[in-house]
């Protein structure tokens, strides 16, 4: 059974809205045998209705989509379309990832059929490689370095934990931190 977490920021999650989210966003479960968790955040800011969806599938695959319009129901519909496009675009690679199970059989067969007809490259092209030293520092120093370089992210080694981390600039102008899990 898929666990839905639906949160609202500056919006009340009414029963009809919850039902609509579960019905529409729940459509992504048709592609996978077992979707563990679906997180949905509905936000209203300055007249914009933002929907952020994160879907966790057992093999460690995360799907994420975000859409923003002036209508919450339209944003929900658009984010579902975006997630489905991601799945369709990546279904051959996802099918390989889910060889041991997890992808529904009919989707897997369709992926194999389309892979035979597709002229898409199996690999993602890497157009540039950079080497750099990962220096120990705290999060604030890493953010300062990222801003000095005018980058959207910065890789560093946490001075306290010795773990590799990434700070990044979010679309809302705030900062995020990615820590490696154990």
Question: Could you explain how this protein is built, in words?
Answer:
- The chain has 182 residues and is of the alpha/beta class.
- It has helices at residues 15-25, 72-97, 105-117, 139-149; strands at 3-9, 37-45, 48-56, 62-69, 136-137, 153-158, 164-169, 175-179.
- The strands form two sheets. A four-stranded mixed β-sheet has the order 1-2-3-4, covered by helices on one side. Strands 5-6-7-8 form a four-stranded mixed β-sheet, covered by helices on one side.
- A hairpin with a 5-residue loop joins strand 3 and strand 4.
- The radius of gyration is 19 Å and the shape is globular.
- Residues 111-120 have low confidence and may be disordered.
């Amino acid at each position: 059974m898929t666990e839905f977490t639906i949160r609202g920021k500056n919006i009340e999650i009414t029963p009809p809205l919850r039902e609509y989210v579960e019905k529409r966003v729940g459509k992504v479960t048709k592609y996978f045998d077992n979707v563990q968790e679906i997180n949905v955040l509905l936000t209203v800011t300055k007249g914009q209705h933002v929907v952020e969806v994160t879907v966790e599938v057992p093999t460690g695959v995360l799907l994420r989509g975000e859409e923003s319009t002036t209508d919450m129901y339209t944003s929900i519909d658009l984010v579902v379309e975006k997630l489905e496009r991601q799945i369709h675009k990546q279904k051959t690679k996802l099918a390989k990832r889910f060889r041991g199970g997890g992808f529904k059989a009919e989707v897997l067969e369709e992926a194999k059929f389309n892979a035979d007809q597709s002229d898409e490259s199996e690999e993602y092209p890497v157009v540039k490689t950079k080497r750099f030293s990962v220096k120990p520092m705290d999060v604030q120093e890493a953010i300062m370095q990222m801003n000095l370089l005018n980058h959207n992210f910065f890789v560093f080694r946490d001075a306290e934990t010795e773990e590799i981390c990434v700070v990044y600039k979010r679309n809302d102008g705030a900062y995020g931190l990615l820590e490696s899990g154990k």
